[in-house]
């Protein structure tokens, strides 16, 4: 087992770092974000394991950075950079997370009567659009998320696409 860990700890770190980097660049430039979002989040979490193995494998070398005091500036700079990005959200009185996600949740929780005008549609037109895509609509006052559940459909991106796009 120790041989396996020492053999693959660094190589998996490199491989997953490449995947995380490529997916992060695509997300940064908003290219094919739905394809890369889950990949980036989950494989970045998986990356923790080989990084921990890599650190364990190279512990003596890492301690040398502390002895030479060459690790402190990069650590402080990294923590500061992270804090600089997090601070605006953490310090805002309206800090409730990602505003886009809040908007999506508001649309999903809204009724056809409430959501249709957002897309410049009548409630009847939105109902017809959803029905054309296989959703069962019982009432104009039924929350959109309940329509998806009752129809046995996904409540996420597929539902939002069904609302937003005619075809």
TrEMBL record:
The lineage of its organism: Bacteria, Pseudomonadati, Pseudomonadota, Alphaproteobacteria, Rhodospirillales. The chain crosses the membrane at residues 12-36, 42-59, 71-90. This is DUF4405 domain-containing protein. Keywords: Membrane, Transmembrane, Transmembrane helix. The keyword Transmembrane applies. It comes from the Bacteria.
